[in-house]
Specification:
The chain is built from 6 helices and no strands. By secondary structure, the chain is mostly helical. It has 2 domains: about 45 residues; about 90 residues, Cytochrome Bc1 Complex, Chain D, domain 2 (Orthogonal Bundle), CATH 1.10.760.
Length: about 140
């Protein structure tokens, strides 16, 4: 075998190996995507059965506001939140788009007290789930 033939054989071998690795990893990724889609659909179905407290936990709210709603270094307390919200609908609207409320004095104070922390919008969540969370918070 001549040197050019050896090089062609090596490149062909490497090409086949890379092609096979690409196929193997794409199958794993597609199966992961499929299982995550199933989990997402399952979570959407299960959310109808979850209470406001469980939804509060599953959305990750306890990370900033704490398990006992007393707040943390990252977020304000949510105990007696009823004093700050005139209606359930206003609270749901806030949860969907917190940035639209940032001009009020209370939120300006929160920005100073909790620098670098941003309340994430939950506009991608079901309004019924946000309603359950609002009911849970307003009842506390």
């Amino acid at each position: 075998m001549t040197k050019p033939q050896i090089w062609v054989a090596v490149f062909l071998f490497l090409f086949i190996i890379l092609f096979l690795l690409g196929r193997i990893t794409s199958k794993e990724e597609s199966s992961k995507n499929f299982s995550s889609m199933n989990n997402q659909n399952l979570n959407e179905q299960d959310s109808a059965e979850l209470t406001g407290e469980k939804l509060f936990q599953s959305f990750g709210c306890i990370t900033c506001h704490g398990n006992d709603l007393a707040g943390t270094k990252s977020g304000p307390p949510l105990i007696a939140i009823k004093q700050n919200w005139s209606s359930r609908d206003n609270l749901i609207n806030y949860l969907r788009n917190p940035n639209s409320y940032m001009d009020s004095d209370r939120f300006k104070d929160y920005k100073e007290k909790y620098p670098g922390t941003i309340m994430p919008p939950y506009n991608n969540k079901d309004v019924k789930d946000l309603g359950k969370i609002a009911d849970y918070l307003l009842a506390r």
